[in-house]
Design a protein that fits this description.
- By secondary structure, the protein is mostly beta strands.
- Helix content is 6%, strand content 69%.
- It has one domain: Porin, CATH 2.40.160.40.
- Strand 1 and strand 2 form a beta hairpin.
- The termini are far apart.
């Protein structure tokens, strides 16, 4: 994994030169509820919708359930989750998919900056076949002085078990509390598909709401 981490910055710099000819603008939206169940243990349920073909057709809807636990006196967190999704093609046929995943997250603070690293091992597929995948995401956020406004940037890669990169994601956005227990998030994301016979680049405008019970 050390070699993978060292390669992130090279991928980030050179990947845009390999952009394919297929592009699509999409809209992603989600709503999440979370509840503390025991001390540093939380459960969350997220509902999401995604639209493709210049945001004109429904691409996917999903339900994601995750259980998270933070280690005492640390910023280390372990999570386990399950996602059920219904994915639609252009001809309106659909396919059910299941995803099981395990996350390990760590946070580092420096003054008003925050760095978050998340490693994810996921196992996703339909009833006939499943595929393992490793994902790593790094996020840098900044809390604007005297406000709850937090802009951020993210980079994430998707690596299969043949050690081939499948996707890269570049995101920027911000979060802002609109109510005492509700937080809003707005982001713009570029997703690049790699090592595919018919790769696609996605340009995504996303919104999300999260509420703590």
């Amino acid at each position: 994994m050390k070699t993978i981490r060292n390669s992130i910055f090279l991928i980030f710099i050179f990947s845009f030169s390999a952009f394919s000819q297929q592009n699509d603008f999409q809209n992603w939206t989600s709503f999440k509820l979370s509840q503390k169940v025991y001390k540093r243990t939380n459960i969350s349920v997220k509902e999401g919708l995604r639209f493709r073909e210049n945001s004109s057709l429904l691409s996917k809807n999903f339900t994601d359930v995750k259980l998270s636990h933070r280690i005492k006196k640390t910023d280390l967190e372990f999570s386990a989750g399950y996602r059920f999704s219904d994915e639609y093609s252009i001809d309106f046929s659909s396919e059910y998919k299941h995803r099981y995943y395990f996350d390990f997250s760590s946070k580092y603070d420096y003054k008003r900056f925050n760095i978050t690293l998340r490693d994810r091992f996921q196992y996703q597929g339909n009833n006939s076949s499943f595929k393992p995948l490793f994902r790593q995401k790094i996020e840098l956020s900044y809390n604007v002085r005297k406000t709850p406004f937090e802009p951020y940037i993210q980079f994430e890669f998707f690596l299969n078990f043949d050690e081939q990169f499948e996707k890269l994601r570049y995101s920027s956005g911000f979060s802002y509390p609109i109510l005492k227990k509700m937080n809003a998030n707005l982001f713009y994301r570029i997703q690049q598909e790699l090592n595919s016979s018919n790769p696609e680049n996605l340009f995504i405008l996303g919104t999300s709401l999260s509420y703590k019970l």
